[in-house]
């Protein structure tokens, strides 16, 4: 018999007021409140890392980070997150390497039923969020349950991402749509190096 935590992580209907889940949410909230007050960057980020399942070695988040559990958060190496990010990690949130997140980012995996009777019965599910390598999310981006973004994706500030997108695109809007393709091949990289040679 699967636990409520196992059902939750698998995206199956689960009881959100299960004692184990309540205890973890309460503990995470209490610890995050203390960690978010730390002025020292190293101490604050060490505190975040203790609560998150796994991160890369190069991990930096500004103050104001919030999440439900930390159990389902997986972040690759070379990650920067700006102020006031909220990750609702009912289901796995997986972020690749070399990702940059602006302020007030929201990654939301929980799903509530459309049917009012089911909602009032506290039925909850979720769907994972996966973000590839080299993503840049502008400020106030919201990503909804079940979304997968490929590698090298840029998301414009204020966008609401309701569906998945592949590699090498700029997306923006509500709902987000492709507004530009990015040349990450030899030609595009040569142009970047020619424009900013000091950076390489």
Automatic annotation (TrEMBL):
Belongs to the transferase hexapeptide repeat family. Pfam families: Hexapep_2, Mac. Keywords: Acyltransferase, Repeat, Transferase. GO terms for molecular function: galactoside O-acetyltransferase activity. Its EC number is 2.3.1.-. This is Acetyltransferase. PANTHER family: ACETYLTRANSFERASE YJL218W-RELATED, GALACTOSIDE O-ACETYLTRANSFERASE. The keyword Acyltransferase applies. Residues 5-57 form the Maltose/galactoside acetyltransferase domain.
């Amino acid at each position: 018999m699967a636990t409520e935590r196992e059902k939750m992580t698998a995206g199956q209907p689960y009881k959100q007021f299960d004692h184990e889940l309540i205890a973890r949410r309460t503990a995470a909230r209490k610890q995050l409140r203390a960690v978010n007050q730390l002025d020292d960057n190293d101490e604050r980020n060490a505190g975040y890392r203790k609560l998150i399942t796994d991160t890369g070695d190069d991990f930096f988040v500004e103050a104001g980070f919030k999440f439900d559990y930390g159990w389902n958060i997986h972040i690759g190496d070379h990650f920067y997150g700006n102020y006031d990010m909220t990750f609702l990690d009912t289901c796995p949130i997986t972020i690749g390497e070399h990702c940059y997140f602006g302020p007030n980012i929201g990654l939301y995996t929980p799903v509530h039923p459309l049917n009012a009777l089911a909602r009032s019965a506290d039925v909850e599910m979720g769907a994972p969020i996966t973000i590839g390598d080299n993503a840049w999310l502008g400020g106030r981006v919201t990503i909804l349950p079940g979304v997968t973004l490929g590698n090298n994706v840029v998301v414009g500030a204020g966008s609401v991402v309701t569906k998945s997108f592949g590699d090498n695109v700029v997306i923006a809007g509500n709902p987000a749509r492709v507004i530009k393709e990015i040349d990450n091949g030899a030609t595009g990289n040569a142009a970047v190096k020619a424009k900013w040679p000091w950076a390489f």
